[in-house]
């Protein structure tokens, strides 16, 4: 089956089971340890990824693998509770299957979250970081292969992937709520292995402030489809190449869970402002 037909098959099943997606619906994607963001969704209806035709199924235990529809403060929400990664053996197109499906459903606004390691030594562990730009160091892209002209251009411009208006709203809301927020460049690598001290030093020298194993693929695909993107990382640990400490997954999840309260509060505040913006 052609790639676009697989996406359309997934979208048709979701519409059949959840109904037509409301205009103005804002989509969320939760990262490692940040699944509690979905607890804020009121009157939720969910579909497990494994029942949606053509949908990949996450093999990572910290990712629930559910599509959740509901509201937050009367704002219609569609959340991907768990994501897919290149390190699971999937190709870039499979990794962004959920994002492409959101676009096919008519989603125009997306908030991505992730758990990331801080490379900038001045950043505070546990703080959210507003992604202002990214470096894709995976060696691949979800745009590889035949372009679907109905989705976007063959050679999309990438000078402003992360919506400038959305980022200003995030900064303003963090200030209003008294939440310390960093802002910088996010880098995606393949994974699943963590970085060596030498690699950490190189990544920092390349201009990255935080690093993780997701998000860039999704942001590229969403931007290609004309979806406005906001991305916020939870800085779960700090990578200092001259005094590296192990960062086991359990620690990453624990820190993300500890920070999820502030992240949820911030994102809920951002949602209201984003929802009111007309296309």
UniProtKB/TrEMBL annotation:
Any one cellular-component term (Gene Ontology): cytoplasm
Recorded superkingdom: Bacteria
Pfam family, one: PNP_UDP_1
UniProt xrefs under InterPro entries: Nucleoside_phosphorylase_d, Nucleoside_phosphorylase_sf, Purine_phosphorylase
Ranges for domain Nucleoside phosphorylase: 25-272
SUPFAM superfamilies linked: Purine and uridine phosphorylases
Enzyme class: transferase
One annotated GO molecular function: purine-nucleoside phosphorylase activity
Gene3D superfamilies: Nucleoside phosphorylase domain
A single BP term in Gene Ontology: nucleoside metabolic process
Keywords noted in UniProt: Glycosyltransferase, Transferase
EC number, as in UniProt: 2.4.2.1
NCBIfam families on file: PNPH-PUNA-XAPA (TIGR01697), PRK08202.1 (NF006054)
Family, as annotated: Belongs to the PNP/MTAP phosphorylase family.
Name of the protein: Purine nucleoside phosphorylase
Source organism of this protein record: Pseudodesulfovibrio piezophilus (strain DSM 21447 / JCM 15486 / C1TLV30)
Lineage, broadest ranks: Bacteria, Pseudomonadati, Thermodesulfobacteriota, Desulfovibrionia, Desulfovibrionales
Gene name for this UniProt entry: punA
């Amino acid at each position: 089956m052609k790639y676009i037909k697989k996406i359309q098959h997934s979208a048709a099943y979701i519409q059949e089971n959840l109904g037509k997606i409301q205009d103005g619906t804002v989509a969320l994607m939760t990262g490692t340890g940040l699944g509690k963001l979905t607890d804020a969704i009121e009157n939720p209806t969910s579909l497990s990824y494994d029942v949606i035709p053509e949908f990949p199924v996450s093999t990572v235990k910290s990712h629930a693998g559910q599509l959740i529809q509901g509201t937050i403060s009367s704002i219609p929400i569609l959340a991907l509770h768990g994501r897919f990664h290149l390190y699971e053996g999937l190709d870039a197109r499979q990794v962004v299957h959920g994002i492409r499906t959101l676009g096919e459903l008519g989603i125009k606004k997306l908030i991505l979250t992730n758990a990331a390691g801080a490379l900038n030594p001045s950043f505070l562990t546990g703080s959210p970081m507003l992604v202002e730009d990214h470096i894709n160091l995976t060696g691949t892209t979800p745009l590889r292969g035949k372009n679907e002209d109905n989705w976007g251009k063959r050679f999309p411009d990438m000078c402003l992937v992360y919506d400038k208006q959305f980022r200003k709203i995030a900064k303003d809301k963090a200030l209003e709520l008294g939440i310390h927020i960093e802002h910088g460049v996010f880098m995606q690598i393949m994974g699943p292995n963590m970085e060596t001290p030498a690699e950490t030093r190189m990544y920092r020298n390349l201009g990255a402030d935080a690093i993780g194993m997701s998000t860039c693929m999704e942001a590229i695909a969403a931007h290609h489809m004309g979806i406005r993107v906001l991305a916020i990382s939870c800085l779960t640990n700090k990578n200092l190449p001259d005094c590296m400490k192990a960062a086991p997954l359990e620690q990453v999840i624990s820190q993300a869970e500890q920070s999820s309260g502030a992240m949820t509060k911030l994102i809920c505040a951002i949602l209201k402002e984003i929802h009111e913006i007309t296309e």
